[in-house]
């Protein structure tokens, strides 16, 4: 017997079933939520690329500036012959800045759940570094994954995790993720981590509520994805985007707020919304350097070096194993 989704690759079938499970679980919680990893379907990935170009979204620009200024210094600190592993690869500009400075890297391992998105961004890396051994892994980096063996033995493994994605994990989960990178890095390994820093809400908030409405479209695309992939019966226009700064938790919260009392249907279940009730779609923590050092220590790392921009808005941190 064949089913409609027999043609889908196993990874994307599994993604659809975990999407449904996560949506049903999240909407059943007292504070409704959907995990942010589901933002990144094809449309969501394109919208995120546009976010990175927005004047208000200082995150990408600031990190790129740090990499431009200090990649040579970072490469020096990492040493020759490293195997570079990038969980959640996607932006070839950042890895290229680092690769251009590394002395004789033995290979590059991008790890990305969406094979198509990864292959597209790998084209640029391949063109710029034709002699580099590239060993792509199509997997969810939040679950254990196997690092392929490079033809040449590396001096050490280095996990490169830019973009401040760590900030999208609540502290306990962030430590778990750092622990898994500690494991992947192995005995003499290291983690090069991009992390946004705590700063005035007047700077942070507009980055998540831009005047062109791109972040709003990115947020609401989650509802469109639920309609398309899960057959959800809902009106995406009956939810509005909201970004809130939660000072006590030091995080941005992205919400989809129901504009009226309504019922939506997903996976054969009904979910009631009161007017103004939110679905939490993302947290983006803005840690201080001290707090980050604390999380790193909990995961078994030591902060060996930190590079920042002049305003100390963003940091790239070299974490080594104790
Ligand atoms: C991927 N991540 C680091 C982004 C952030 O800034 O938290 C996701 C994002 N959400 C809205 N704008 C960007």
Question: Radius of gyration, Cα only, in angstroms?
Answer: 20 Å
SS-derived structural category: alpha/beta
Helical segment tally?
A: 9
The shape is globular
Largest sheet: 6 strands, mixed
| Strand percentage | 15-25%
Strand order of the largest sheet: 2-1-3-4-11-10
Mean pLDDT: 94
CA distance, first residue to last residue: 54 Å
Order of helices and strands: HHHEHEHEHEHHEEEEEHEE
Cofactors, ions, other ligands: N,N-dimethyl-L-histidine
What is the number of strand segments? 11
Low-pLDDT segments, ≥5 res = 1-8
Instruction: Work out the helicity level.
Output: 25-40%
Descriptive notes:
Strands 2-1-3-4-11-10 form a 6-stranded mixed sheet, with helices on both faces. Strands 5-6-9 form a 3-stranded antiparallel sheet, with helices on one face. Strands 7-8 form a two-stranded antiparallel sheet. The termini are far apart. Strand 1, helix 4 and strand 2 form a beta-alpha-beta unit. The longest helix has 21 residues. It is 38% helix and 23% strand. With 322 residues, the chain is α/β, with parallel strands linked by helices. Bound molecules: N,N-dimethyl-L-histidine. N,N-dimethyl-L-histidine (AVI) binds next to strand 9.
What's the quick description here?
The protein has helices at 10-28, 42-51, 58-78, 92-99, 115-128, 171-185, 201-207, 214-230, 289-298, and strands at residues 82-87, 107-111, 156-161, 190-196, 239-246, 251-258, 262-266, 269-273, 278-285, 301-308, 314-321. The protein is of the alpha/beta class.
């Amino acid at each position: 017997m064949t089913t409609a989704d027999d043609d889908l690759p196993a990874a994307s079938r599994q993604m659809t079933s975990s999407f449904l499970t996560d949506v049903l679980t999240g909407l059943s919680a007292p504070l409704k939520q959907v995990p942010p990893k589901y933002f990144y379907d094809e449309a969501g990935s394109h919208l995120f690329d546009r976010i990175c170009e927005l004047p208000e979204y200082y995150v990408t620009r600031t990190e790129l500036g740090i990499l431009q200024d200090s990649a040579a210094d970072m490469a020096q600190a990492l040493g020759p012959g490293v195997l570079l592993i990038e969980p959640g690869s996607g932006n070839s500009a950042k890895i290229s800045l680092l690769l251009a400075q590394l002395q004789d890297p033995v290979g590059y391992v991008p790890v990305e759940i969406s094979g198509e998105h990864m292959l597209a961004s790998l084209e640029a890396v391949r063109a710029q570094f034709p002699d580099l051994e590239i060993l792509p892994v199509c997997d969810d980096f939040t679950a254990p994954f196997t690092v392929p063996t490079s033809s040449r033995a590396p001096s050490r493994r280095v996990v490169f995790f830019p973009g401040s994605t760590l900030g999208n994990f609540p502290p306990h989960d962030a430590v778990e993720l750092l622990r898994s990178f500690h494991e992947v890095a192995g005995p003499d390994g290291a983690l090069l981590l991009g992390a946004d820093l705590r700063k005035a809400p007047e700077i942070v908030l507009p980055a998540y509520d831009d005047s062109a409405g791109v972040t709003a479209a990115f947020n609401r695309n989650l509802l469109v994805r639920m309609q398309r992939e899960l057959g959800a019966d809902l009106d995406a226009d009956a939810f509005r985007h909201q970004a809130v700064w939660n000072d006590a938790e030091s995080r941005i919260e992205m919400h989809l707020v129901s504009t009226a009392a309504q019922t939506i249907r997903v996976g054969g279940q009904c979910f009631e919304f009161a007017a103004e009730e939110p679905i939490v779609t993302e947290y983006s923590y803005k840690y201080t350097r001290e707090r980050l050092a604390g999380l790193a220590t909990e995961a078994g790392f030591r902060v060996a070096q930190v590079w920042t921009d002049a305003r100390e808005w963003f940091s790239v941190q070299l974490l080594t194993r104790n």
